């Protein structure tokens, strides 16, 4: 049997060599010492990602593929069976299967999933039977039918995936468990279809190849690569074992994700003594009282309580940064870092099994380890990724040491005795920030009301990219009353649409923030009378909901997160590619996907942008100039510490997937501690089990790929530097540079290798210098 890695090399060397030039990327921030992972993308980068039974809708956390597997919930099986029976008997169309760009989110229920998905899979197997029997090695005879199959699957399974993230329930979990294995079988059948693979090879080597566009050629090359990575070269027992591994990995990933959600929901701490919450700002007290009232404590008020503290981030983080009660901080911190690490929700054994199966899968495909397999479809190699991480670690370590020393010295000066523990760091770092810069999140919140921030964000889109974003609420069904719907106009005509689900709902919605596609732009899938089907996206955040009749008042980090997700959405929506398999966020290497999102974050600090929305929600007064100055001055506060946290996550990920051997003495927690010795300036607690909630790499698309945040951050910082060089105060230059960014990074999607796209925009290869400069680390690195 030919080794899959050799076969892959034959078809893909030209693609990968074009992408090797880029050697850097950015950090997704963690705050002070607190672990914060805001992104969880689900992106369809290729048909393999789109159709894999392991992924939820292609998304981008922003791009992370979310795996659907179900927990052992035998108590729900009967309920699902009854619901399926009822749904089957009803002589009405299943709303899950309606062929529309705006799904019937308000009608779809868990009982529609099993009959709907089974009907879908039956339909698609029939379509594949026909295609395999009649396939012709031409674009129209091969690629277009496959796009139709993939699109149909994505639109239905995508709804299920989306609901799993924003509207989870025991009934939905049980329904997903029912059909997940069947869905994986479809994915495996497609990725291992020898008739289709042979047709792609014949197309690549045949007479039509010369007439294909560059975008079409890139699609074909990546399809050939993905067939190999999907196991098409395997035979007999090796193929059977590979498929069994894929099924088990799907189940383990969903189990992991469910455990994290359950463990997060399980922690509830009700407080009745105001002294226990001393230091918490009024917004946090209001949220805690609102949560208590929702749990049955009628009459709860911000002033008198009771107050309910949870591990949902809008509740957890204010406790860590503001609560004077050190015992409360310790209790909440220990609960947070030990989520899903004990009892029925223990993800520890699941992690070991996932790593074991990924290693075995890699060997079957001819790779030495899973990191090499993962990077076969990325820009970086393992060596290049680790070189970047080390470069950034060296540039950040001294600054992080200084951060630690300054926080310790300040705490001691304020009467704190002893060494700072993990549950002290965020609290004292915030007090030092207030002392140095005379600024706090709570002082800024009144100026960052969500309606105003959206208005400013949309003005920025017009300024940079010459598009208008207008409310379209009521024009499409939504899944929750808080969800907004918007239309993007270009030259006055509809260009795209998107949903926004902004608020935290810990009872049914997973944490983090992400963007995912509903449908992609496609010439082939154009409705009657149209030249192209327009793209539709949804953006999901988890910020604090409106409290006490006030709008949602955002922290500045939440503002950055909203800008980040909108950057992902813009790449999906402003694409000019009409080939559905390469439009928008599709067909883009994973380690380049964060470029537009992290690029957009930079604009939150831009003066003209900030003052377009930073006005007091009650008085309308703009943010005071001196407060803006303090915000800018504090921009790089503890940047060394924040950089190291992301480098730690990235390094642990690569170490586990490249060199760790399960069951040979050391545990994954031992590896975490060993990596921390070189990537952190403060040793984690021995009982730290953060890995048990690291969904990005164990239940998402970032396995052996978390470094991508840093890799793409190099690109995004350098891209923003183009605007700085042009002059941020030169409106004409900003608009011209924005148009160039729109016409390259946003417009070209996956039709051109990302390395080439960057050079088209920037006029040169990327540099790490702007990233270090933006983080205030350039002088440290030079020293």
TrEMBL record:
Gene3D superfamilies: 1.10.1370.40, Collagenase (Catalytic Domain), Neurolysin, domain 3. InterPro entries: M3A_DCP, MetalloPept_cat_dom_sf, Neurolysin/TOP_dom2, OpdA_N, Pept_M3A_M3B, Pept_M3A_M3B_dom. Its EC number is 3.4.24.70. Residues 375-405 form a coiled coil. The keyword Plastid does not apply. Residues 319-776 form the Peptidase M3A/M3B catalytic domain. Its cofactor is Zn(2+). Keywords: Coiled coil, Hydrolase, Metal-binding, Metalloprotease, Protease, Zinc. Residues 117-239 form the Oligopeptidase A N-terminal domain. The keyword Nucleotide-binding does not apply. Pfam families: Peptidase_M3 (PF01432), TOP_N (PF19310). Binds 1 zinc ion. It is an enzyme of class 3 (hydrolase). It catalyses: Hydrolysis of oligopeptides, with broad specificity. Gly or Ala commonly occur as P1 or P1' residues, but more distant residues are also important, as is shown by the fact that Z-Gly-Pro-Gly-|-Gly-Pro-Ala is cleaved, but not Z-(Gly)(5). Belongs to the peptidase M3 family. This is oligopeptidase A. It comes from Volvox africanus. The lineage of its organism: Eukaryota, Viridiplantae, Chlorophyta, core chlorophytes, Chlorophyceae.
